[in-house]
Design brief:
Layout: H1 3-99, H2 102-119, E1 124-128, H3 130-148, E2 152-156, E3 163-168, E4 175-178, H4 179-198
Parallel strand pairs: 1-2
Antiparallel strand pairs: 1-3, 3-4
Helix pairs in contact: 1-4, 2-3
């Protein structure tokens, strides 16, 4: 082999070695960069996964709190409805008989009518349910002139179960002593005490 050819071969070998070194450097840089990209991707994925898990946990906790609150609200509402139903039935049963006693209602109306007449001297208006209206309307009108010395209008309210309403005839307002009004009054007045006794063992 001639010296010239050998020289060319040596030059080519140098260039090949340089190219190989450059290629190795490029490959190393690429591998390093790939590792960095993979690590970054893993870190990002870990962060996103952690954030997703925290969000899921937050939502589950929020859902659990909402569910717990809904259960509490339902129990409170059920408790209130239960106690109100018990109170209404209890007071309704207790008061209904008395508030449908014609003699008791007549005497109460006349007694209250005397107080009205003594202090205000107005004609009076009394409102009764169907049963008491049938039994007392005529009697009250007759006795009003003798006992109260004033006029008395007696009106019918078919929605009333018992008791009466009374007021000045020319005024729109009345004092409500109907069964419905008194049941509500007693339920409100004594409801908390009775509720405390009924649910004394509840936590």
């Amino acid at each position: 082999m001639s010296q010239e050819v050998s020289k060319i071969i040596d030059q080519l070998q140098v260039r090949i070695d340089e190219a190989n070194k450059k290629a190795e450097s490029i490959i190393q840089e690429a591998e390093t960069r790939a590792k960095e990209i993979i690590n970054d991707a893993r870190n990002t994925a870990d962060k996103q996964l952690k954030a997703a898990e925290e969000e899921i946990q937050r939502r589950e906790q929020a859902h659990a709190e909402k569910l717990k609150q809904a259960v509490r609200d339902t129990l409170i509402e059920l408790k209130q409805k239960t106690i109100q139903s018990i109170l209404n039935k209890t007071f309704d049963a207790t008061l209904t008989e008395s508030l449908n006693d014609p003699d008791l209602i007549k005497n109460t109306i006349l007694k209250m009518g005397q107080e009205f007449a003594r202090k205000l001297s107005p004609d009076l208006r009394v409102i009764l349910g169907p049963e008491l209206f049938e039994k007392l309307a005529k009697t009250l009108k007759q006795e009003a002139h003798q006992v109260l010395k004033t006029g008395l209008e007696v009106e019918l309210d078919r929605s009333m179960k018992g008791g009466f309403k009374i007021g000045a005839a020319k005024e729109a307002y009345v004092y409500d002593f109907s069964t419905e009004a008194l049941v509500e009054l007693f339920s409100t007045a004594y409801g908390s005490q009775i509720e405390a006794q009924i649910f004394a063992g509840a936590k």
